[in-house]
Design a protein that fits this description.
Helix content of chain B: 25-40%
Chains: A alpha/beta (365), B alpha/beta (178), C alpha/beta (253)
Shape of chain B: globular
CATH class of the largest domain in chain A: Alpha Beta
Oligomer: heterotrimer
Structural class of chain B: alpha/beta
CATH architecture of the largest domain in chain A: 3-Layer(aba) Sandwich
Radius of gyration of chain B: 15 Å
Strand content of chain A: 15-25%
CATH superfamily of chain B: Pyruvate-ferredoxin oxidoreductase, PFOR, domain III
Order of helices and strands of chain A: EHEHEHEHEHEHEHEEHEEHEEHEHEHE
Distance between the termini of chain A: 53 Å
Strand content of chain B: 15-25%
CATH class of chain B: Alpha Beta
Strand order of the largest sheet of chain B: 2-3-1-4-5-6
Number of helices of chain B: 6
Largest sheet of chain B: 6 strands, mixed
């Protein structure tokens, strides 16, 4: 039997996928453009016997998630940039205490209150940890509503596998749009893997303590080395990306999320017109970053064009990946702007024509 | 084939329902489709619009810059979207509320007294369905039968009482244009 | 021979590392005794906060989690909702609870979370070195109010019990002290009542313990007890502020 397709809004699809992944605790606070996710959870979570709390602030929400995760539940929260900024304190504690959780950042334009238009400007915040201390969270970058579903489910699994938060970095378009989607079967979440550390009734066992304080000399460094080893393992095992028409491409576009959708159609359009041969490398994980795959492009002497909805954030990781061995150019929109197919094709033409990297900011020009 | 539609009007004219129904019907027919609404502060103050793409192939961006087709349910929508239609495209104007004519001569203008037609069927609230019926006839984006069948899937519980009226309005709109 | 006194089962063997004369250790002990008396030790979960009591997790024999500054009530909320059969308490100081954590305090109280907050109010930030707290008394000199707290500059000392007594989610609310044996015994009774309110599912409970901090106050421990009675006592009246079980609200002593 063919799988049933549903027409779902991105924000709601994340919520349903989370429930099917066994998430039974959600705490959040309203912010556009992710409100439909919070509203969906308020409606559906009680039906699944879970807990929904509209917290007094994002700070309280992430700390409720911290507590619920410590008690062994699959937990999540969601917000947009300004709210995720407030949650960074709690995310740092989750990482320091090695607790899993999943969250979604449906990015809007910044800095400050900015606007509610789609953006990718929280790239650094997401991929560099984002709060205080030396930590990373696994960052998934879906580009379709179907991927929002699949990567949400994967996000919970990865978080539990490494006892570390994982997140979706979406944007206002992904959160707000509707697309047909195949909803996955509910997984039977087995919390028994957490009985060795989760808080609860301590009858007949050693007591459990969850903390991120390590004052005794050497203990924090030892712990951070342990975290570092974990992060190296994640970098070795969890990198995901998609290649599209890359092999014979003269210029390879590197883009993620909604920008990658536009880039894909630019690749197709340029090839149909018999123009410049474009290809696309779409990171699906932003941390860990597909550094090796991008370095391979440099080995093949291919030009690279980064197309992003932020001012040179993804660009920085791409340049670090090629270490000066390829010409990396940039096409950037920010504050709600979205690159168009034509802009990408035109920018690619400029890349080929120039012996030096070019940086193109269509709104500034 | 790919059809890109922008639908726009006052809040309450059922613009989102129009878009959802088009998108849902496309899905039922096994097509690729995206629906993207105006959201947040943009939708406060009474105007609403949404973009729907229906395609036989994978859809890249759900954002429609150059629509093939615009539905203008009120005058503000005409003013806002007329200039964005691709040359050779179509604009459907709700002539019950919009007396102004389209200025461009490189697009086709189809004037539909949607409120009056819907009124005649029982309630002007179904004007959106009249307009969508016209669009389906003109663009062939999805089959009208599929839209009629999908109605009960997308109407809210509250609006289910108007199911039959909406079906009639869709059919009537479909017959309105040649 | 009958054993009449001993270490409560809920306390670990770890010696307290608080300053001489500090009230935290006494409050920990009373908490442990209350938990023992109620027979709920295995299902207790404590939430440590930030401040002098940051390591309070070391001193107990049941599960514990350490929370960010001010967030203990939110963390306790998350745990309690997942493990409703567990008995949750936070141990927080005045800076943690009444300054940075005011929102979490008020809203967990207002939601009627079935958790118990043990609030140690010694009118000063101890761990960071004696800075002004939200409960620092008018005229009191601290390292950040070197001229003494002035109402027109730094505002007034915050009275937490008075502030939250009107919230419907609050089931039990009492202010006590541990400056003399009678008050110590009253504090233990208050803690038991607060835990009992949680066990009975009545809602949120909080016990504010007006406490001495000889180090932060720059006094000998004995002097600090006297100062507490005279100065703190005048501004922070002791008594039961709310008892959902009692028919009528009780008079503040």
């Amino acid at each position: 039997m063919a799988e049933e397709r549903l027409l779902m809004k991105g924000n709601e699809a994340i919520g349903e996928a989370a429930l099917r992944a066994g998430c039974r605790f959600y705490a959040g606070y309203p912010i556009t453009p992710q409100n439909e996710l919070t509203e969906y959870m308020s409606r559906r979570m009680p039906e699944e016997g879970g807990t929904f709390i509209q917290a007094e602030s994002e700070i309280a929400a992430i700390n409720m998630v911290y507590g619920a995760s410590a008690a062994g539940a699959r937990t999540m929260t969601s917000s947009s940039g300004p709210g995720i900024s407030l949650k960074q304190e709690g995310i740092s504690y989750l990482c320091g205490s090695e607790l899993p959780c999943f969250y979604a950042n449906i990015v809007r334009g910044g800095p400050g209150l900015g606007n509610i238009a789609p953006a990718q400007s929280d790239y650094f915040q997401s991929t560099r940890g984002g709060g205080h201390g030396d930590y990373r969270v696994v960052v998934f970058a879906p580009s379709t509503v179907q991927e929002l579903v699949d990567l949400t489910i994967l996000g919970f699994e990865v978080a539990d596998r490494y006892n570390n938060p994982s997140m979706i970095l979406g944007d206002g378009i992904l959160g707000q749009m509707m697309e047909p989607v195949v909803m996955r079967e509910s997984v039977t979440y087995d919390p028994s893997g957490k009985t060795g550390w989760a808080l609860g009734n301590s009858e007949g066992r050693e007591r459990h303590m969850i903390t991120s304080v390590r004052l005794a000399p050497g203990t924090l460094e030892r712990h951070n080395v342990h975290l570092r080893k974990k992060y190296l393992e994640i970098e070795a095992k969890e990198v995901r990306y998609e290649l599209y028409e890359v092999d014979d491409a003269d210029v390879v576009i590197i883009a993620y999320g909604t920008a990658a959708r536009v880039a894909k159609s630019a690749v197709t359009a340029a090839r149909e017109k018999g123009g410049i041969k474009l290809g696309l490398l779409r990171p699906i994980t932003l941390w860990p970053f597909p550094t090796d795959a991008i370095a391979d492009l440099a080995k093949n002497k291919q030009d690279i064009l980064v197309a992003e909805m932020s001012f040179g954030q993804l660009y920085e990781d791409v340049r670090l990946s090629v270490c000066g061995k390829a010409k990396v150019s940039l096409l950037a929109h920010t504050g709600g702007g979205l690159p168009t197919e034509d802009e990408i094709i035109e920018a690619a033409g400029k890349c080929v024509a120039s012996s030096e990297p070019v940086e193109i900011y269509p709104v500034l020009e | 084939m790919t059809t890109r539609v922008i639908m726009a009007g006052f809040g309450g004219q059922g613009v989102v329902l129009m878009g959802t129904l088009l998108s849902y019907s496309a899905m039922v027919q096994g097509k690729h489709t995206t629906f993207f609404p105006s959201y947040g502060a943009e939708m406060r103050g009474g105007t609403a619009n949404c973009s729907v793409i229906v395609s036989d192939t994978e859809i890249p961006s759900p954002v429609v810059n150059e629509p093939d087709c615009v539905i203008a349910m009120n005058i503000a929508s005409l003013d806002k979207f007329e200039s964005r239609i691709r040359p050779g495209g179509v604009i459907f104007v709700n002539s019950s509320l919009v007396k102004k004519k389209v200025a461009r001569d490189d697009i086709e203008e189809i004037r539909v007294p949607a409120n009056d037609i819907a009124e005649g069927l029982g309630a002007s609230r179904a004007a959106n369905m009249v307009m969508l019926g016209c669009v389906l006839k003109k663009t062939g984006a999805v089959a009208v039968d599929s839209a009629v069948k999908s109605l009960e899937k997308v109407l809210s519980e509250r609006a289910m009482a108007l199911l039959e009226l909406n079906k009639k309005a869709l059919q009537r709109g479909f017959e309105e244009v040649s | 021979m009958e054993k009449v006194f001993g270490k409560p089962e809920s306390l670990s063997d770890r010696p307290f590392t608080y300053c001489p004369g500090c009230a935290h250790s006494l409050v920990h002990r009373l908490t442990a005794e209350a938990i023992d008396d109620l027979g709920v030790m295995p299902r207790c979960i404590g939430v440590a906060s930030v401040g002098c009591s940051v390591f309070s997790d070391l001193y107990f024999n049941f599960d514990f989690i350490q929370a960010a500054h001010g967030r203990a009530p939110a963390v306790a909320t998350g745990i309690k909702r997942v493990k409703p059969d567990c008995v949750l308490f936070t141990h927080q100081g005045d800076g943690d609870l009444a300054s940075i954590g005011t929102a979490e305090l008020i809203h967990s109280a207002n939601r009627g979370e079935k958790i118990t907050i043990i609030f140690v109010n010694n009118a000063i930030y101890g761990m960071t070195g004696g800075q002004m707290a939200p409960t620092t008394l008018i005229g009191m000199k601290t390292t950040t109010s070197p001229l003494g707290r002035q109402a027109e500059v730094q505002g007034y000392p915050l009275r937490v019990c008075e502030l939250i007594r009107e919230l419907k989610g609050v089931a039990y609310l009492e202010r006590t002290a541990v400056n003399n044996p009678q008050n110590v015994l009253k504090t233990k009774r208050a803690l038991k009542k607060a835990f009992q309110a949680q066990l009975d599912g009545l809602g949120f409970s909080l016990v504010e313990v007006v406490s001495q901090c000889p180090t932060g106050w720059g006094m000998l421990p004995a002097d600090s007890l006297e100062w507490l009675e005279k100065e703190m006592g005048a501004y922070f009246p002791l008594g039961v502020f709310k008892d959902a079980k009692a028919e009528e609200p009780q008079e503040v002593a």
